[in-house]
Amino acid sequence: MVGVYLMISTYLKPLDEVDAARADHLSYLAGLEEAGYSVTAGRIDPPTGGIILLDVDTEAEAQELIAEDPYVQRGLATYAAIGWHPARGALAGYQRTRKN
């Protein structure tokens, strides 16, 4: 069974500072999507952070990828990694689309 990692961010700075880097963050996410690492992503409501669902094998790999996020590099957010195996709903039976 393929596992994924929920990367749950917490903003460390006011939302206007986070939003000033949002275009760079979204560009980074687009690169992760193109490479097959990001399954989905979105901001938490209320906007105190967000969630990125990464298709990786280990927490170390998830942390390595997230370290390149402009939010992390600029000290705007931190991420907690939580391993997850989707068992029900839309992602049940999720299959990796990228080659290892």
From TrEMBL:
Coiled coil residues, start to end: none
InterPro entries (alphabetical): Dimeric_a/b-barrel, YCII
Pfam families: YCII
Limits of the YCII-related domain: 7-80
Similarity comment text for this entry: Belongs to the YciI family.
Protein's name according to its UniProt entry: Uncharacterized conserved protein YciI, contains a putative active-site phosphohistidine
Protein's organism: Actinoplanes derwentensis
Lineage: Bacteria, Bacillati, Actinomycetota, Actinomycetes, Micromonosporales
